[in-house]
Every structure is written in C-alpha cells, then in structure tokens.
Amino acid sequence: MAPTPRLAVGDQAPAFTLPADDGRPLALTDLRGSNVVLYVYPAAGTPGCTTQAGDFRDNLQVFADAGYAVVGLSPDPPATLAAFRATEGLTFALLSDVSHEVLTAYGAYGEKQLYGKTVTGVIRSTFVIDEAGRLTGASYAVKAKGHVAKLVRDLGL
After folding, report:
1. Helix residue ranges, H only, the chain
2. Nearest in space to 132 (alpha carbons), one of 22, 25, 13
3. Is the dihedral of CA 69, 75, 79, 85 positive or negative?
4. Measured distance CA(120)–CA(98) in Å, rounded
5. Strand pairing category for 35-40 and 25-27
6. Tens of pLDDT along 25-66?
7. 10-25: b or e for each residue (b if 16 or more CB lie within 10 Å)?
8. Residues 39, 139 contacting (CB under 8 angstroms)
9. pLDDT digits over 73-101, tens only?
10. Residues with active-site annotation
C-alpha cells in the first residue's frame, strides 16, 4: 500500500456528510462559520480513545469559549458511538465513517506502525478547520494522552 497523502495547513478541508452518533447526518458545511477541531481516533471504548475523548470533554468549554466546535471521527458504526458517548458523558458529536472514505481523504487511514509492525488502520490525527473550511492545523500520529493539552497550548487558548 502506498503512503497515504497528508493534508497541510492552507488546504481546503475535504467535504463530508456522515452519520453522527444520534443517527442524523452532519456535514462539514453545517459547521461553517465556526472553527472546528476534527479529531480522528481508531476505536470507541478502547483505553487510548477513551482517554482522548475524556480530555476533549473536560476541555470542551475552553474550545467553545474560543469559538471552536469539537467533533470526533472514527470508523465505528453510529450505535457504537452512541453507547461510547453515553458511557463517557460526551457532549460533542461523534461521526461514523465505516467506509473509511473521509478518513482516507484526510490522510488519516493507511499504513502506520503498531507495536513495531506496519499495519493498515486509522491514524490518530487532529485537524483544525477555520470558518471558511481551510485547515489551520493538521497533526498526524498524535498521542492519545496529552494531545488535548498540547492542542490548547498550540491554539493559545
């Protein structure tokens, strides 16, 4: 498999319409006029993903006060995301990309290293999208623990 193309600051964020954890579709265009933090994680309910989601939940007001909407994205089906959201008390949308099309468009699905082996899967990533739909941040292979604090610092929040 060829390396997955990565997005960079200044690129137009790939458009999407995906089902959310509540079963309703959410499009990137629905969020126009707001800055968006789109974070990609491999699997709801796993230790790292639970830590990361909890960090976003616990800092959600910091992002909201600065005009950022937070949205999670994974390949999990909506029912799994709904259960994850309820269990962890998450108050932001979780989107489902079972086909990996949007994950691939963002460069967040492809070859990665896992326990010293090359595998194909979701690459934990975060994208910051401005009000016009352009990327102002694109971070790949981020760590689950501590990433939200780093993002808050990097955004000056």
Report:
1. 47-58, 60-65, 78-88, 101-105, 147-154
2. 13
3. negative
4. 15
5. unpaired
6. 999 999 988 999 999 999 999 999 999 999 999 999 999 999
7. ebebbebebbbbeeee
8. no
9. 999 999 999 999 999 999 999 999 999 99
10. 49
